[in-house]
């Protein structure tokens, strides 16, 4: 049974350049120059797009942060208070200790959410835009859901200013975000019994990215910043070193301390790689956000909660989503269409090259038929003698250049070199 051979793979043409003979021809100079300019523009565009893609890929690998506004709401509700019992027609003044019905109590709530981002258009004179920061035509199920309030808080302490003798319940409530799988929440609620007005203080440590630190006053006075990330502090210190020209002229890794940095470094000079370790000693835990609230159960709660806006640095998920969308924006259909157009251009260039050769052939024949035939016969004769190695003239008509190059292979050491090379090849094949 005859085995069918697989079809030969079609060679893909990739050359899109016009032959030099056509490019420098007076008849096609203008069109050739326009096409050459298009190729150069395409080359620059491809290079720019490739560079931007690499930059986007590199940026996706680095942490991207943005400053958002976190709005915190403080509110309370009451139950079982005297003014509520007086208004209720169903209450008979009885108190149920087990269910807590009729016992004066209140609930203090701490809630929060990130405000929606309004884009600042960097392309239209930085004018405000009313669109939300979303990818055009993005499906609702593909959008990133808003983060819960508890994911933005690292630690929260609620202090109640109450008489412990009268209210034995704990007057300090603390919540710490642990590594365990804690449920994410939109807010926190503190429940207590009582009808006395209470002053409440809320201490809140935010979960920021990158982590923020408070600078020691000595370092803060030098850099002019009070709170920053570790990377930002080192960058600011490096800018100060460059501004004051504190690098050693010979060894650029050596930093000479001036009068202000001498207290930070503890010596007159320091290696650059030792700076992060010294800087860590001057970074402290940031101050908490302190919120005050007065809860009076004897009057109806306010209709609207108290709201406070604080700035928080978090991962810029919207920017990452947009950059990923840019990386994947070229659909397979578009790429396939571009490849098809490139193949068509290469085919046209190949056809143009063949047509140019045919045109020159026919023009040469029409200009001087006798000379053209004579030159063509001499060329065919030389090619035939080159193939056969001999002829009616015993190679006398071979070109002298070919004869000079052939003498190289008749040198005495050529045979020995061929034998050594062949021996090495056979030894490598045998695995020796």
UniProtKB/TrEMBL annotation:
State what protein this is by name.
Uncharacterized protein
């Amino acid at each position: 049974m005859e085995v069918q051979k697989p079809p030969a793979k079609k060679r893909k043409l990739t050359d899109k350049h016009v032959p030099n003979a056509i490019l420098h021809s007076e008849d096609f100079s203008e069109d050739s120059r326009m096409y050459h300019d298009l190729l150069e523009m395409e080359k620059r565009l491809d290079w720019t797009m490739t560079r931007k893609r690499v930059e986007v890929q590199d940026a996706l690998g680095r942490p991207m942060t943005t400053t958002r506004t976190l709005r915190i709401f403080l509110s309370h509700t009451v139950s079982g208070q005297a003014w509520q019992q007086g208004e209720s027609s169903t209450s008979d003044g009885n108190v149920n200790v087990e269910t807590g019905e009729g016992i004066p109590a209140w609930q203090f709530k701490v809630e929060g959410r990130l405000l929606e981002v309004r884009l600042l258009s960097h392309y239209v004179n930085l004018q405000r835009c009313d669109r939300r920061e979303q990818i055009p035509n993005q499906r609702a199920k593909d959008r990133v859901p808003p983060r819960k309030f508890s994911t933005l808080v690292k630690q929260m302490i609620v202090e109640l200013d109450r008489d412990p003798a009268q209210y034995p319940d704990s007057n300090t409530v603390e919540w710490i975000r642990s590594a365990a799988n804690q449920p994410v929440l939109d807010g926190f609620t503190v429940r207590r019994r009582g009808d006395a007005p209470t002053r409440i203080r809320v201490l809140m440590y935010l979960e920021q990215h990158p982590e923020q630190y408070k600078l020691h006053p000595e370092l803060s006075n030098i850099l002019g910043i009070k709170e920053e990330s570790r990377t930002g502090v080192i960058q600011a210190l490096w800018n100060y070193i460059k501004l004051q020209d504190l690098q050693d002229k010979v060894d650029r890794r050596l930093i000479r301390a001036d009068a202000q940095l001498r207290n930070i470094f503890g010596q007159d000079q320091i290696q650059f790689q030792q700076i992060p370790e010294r800087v860590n000693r001057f970074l402290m835990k940031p101050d908490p956000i302190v919120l005050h609230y007065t809860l009076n159960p004897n009057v109806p709660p306010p209709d609207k909660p108290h709201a406070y806006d604080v700035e928080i640095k978090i991962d810029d998920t919207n920017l990452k989503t947009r950059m990923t969308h840019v990386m994947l924006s070229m659909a397979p259909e578009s790429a396939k269409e571009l490849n098809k157009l490139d193949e068509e251009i290469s085919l046209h260039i190949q056809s143009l090259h063949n047509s140019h050769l045919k045109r020159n052939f026919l023009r040469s024949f029409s200009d001087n038929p006798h000379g053209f035939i004579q030159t063509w016969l001499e060329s065919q004769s030389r090619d035939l003698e080159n193939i056969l190695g001999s002829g009616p003239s015993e190679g006398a008509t071979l070109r002298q250049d070919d004869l000079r190059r052939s003498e190289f292979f008749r040198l005495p050491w050529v045979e020995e070199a061929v034998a050594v090379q062949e021996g090495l090849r056979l030894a490598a094949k045998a695995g020796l």
